[in-house]
Amino acid sequence: MFSMKNLLVILSLALCLLADIEYEDSEAGNLKRINDFRREFAKKHNIANMHELALDRNLRQTAMWIDIQHDTWKDEAGKT
C-alpha cells in the first residue's frame, strides 16, 4: 500500500499538472499567457483600451517569407 508520504507526493504532482493545463505549451497557450499578463498590467496601472492580442497566421507566414528573402539577399551580398 501507499504510505502517507507517497500519497502526498502523488497528490502534489497531480495538482501541479492540473494547474498547468490552462496554459498549454503552444502558440495559443503562449498568447493566452501574454494576454493574461497584459490584462493584469492594464488593471494595475489603470490603462484603458489595452485590447487582447490575436494570432494572425498569414502575417506570421509573410514575416517568415520576408526573413528568408532577407537572409538570401544577405548571403548573396556577402559573396561579392
UniProtKB/TrEMBL annotation:
Signal sequence annotation: 1-19
Keyword field: Signal
Name assigned to this protein: Cathepsin propeptide inhibitor domain-containing protein
Organism, as annotated: Caenorhabditis nigoni
